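Go through this chain for my students:
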Amino acid sequence: MRVHSIEKMTAEVNMRTDAKQPGRWFRCFGASPNARRRLICFHHAGGGASLFREWHRHCSPDTEVWAVAIPGRETRITEKPVDQLSALAGLLVQALPQELPFAFFGHSLGAVVSFELARQLHERRLAVPQHLFVSACTAPQLCRRDRSRAHLSDAELLRLLQGFGGTPKEILGHPGYLEMVLSVLRADFNLIDEYIVPEGCDVRFPMTAYAGSSDANIRLDKILAWDRWATRDFVCHQFDGDHFYLNEHREALIKDVLSRWGKSVVSNAADVYA
């Protein structure tokens, strides 16, 4: 067996072991001793958990905000990014804290990551999110591309990222950092571009979609197609803004999320005892 194969196997074993440590895979912002539920958030391609750093400031003490922390960025910058969604979700299943009820909020790539995680939780008969909030993302059954964007040249990838409005100008002047960012982007785009919903999957969750009214990158009809995976009363709420509308409308968005989450829990309980 080649040495690099042994190293790869060792890295995979270590990653599976690490997945059992929630603090490594999820960051909690604004921990509260009075927490009764958790809003678990998933970031866009090239992003990180810090996107949700301030969200807890708009939540009551009974709701904690957690954010996924995946390899290749921020606190895990030295680790190799994961580029297969089923594998990433499998690791997150092992690490997901489940002692409190939870809902998922996923933005862009994060919406599909949260869906696949919810699907695997359901498949393994574990606790599932009480509500799935998906933002600025094509429905999972439409994600697969003939050619993953991971194969774009550096210049093409940068133009794509700039089109989404997600490229801080300061990184362009630092070649070493830029190389790392592009490596993460390739892995992240591969997560979504090679994703196929498993054949026969028929999971459904209470679900709400969000979109920026001037998002030129995600067609509204592809967001509305999330209805395929919703239990009932599916809606898509639009905010003024582009793909990153959530930065401008953070407080209003969180208020809407928490309101709809509460209503869906009441509605589900009514269904159970009807």
Observations:
- The two ends are 61 Å apart (CA to CA).
- The first strand starts at residue 26 and ends at 29.
- The chain has a mean pLDDT of 87.
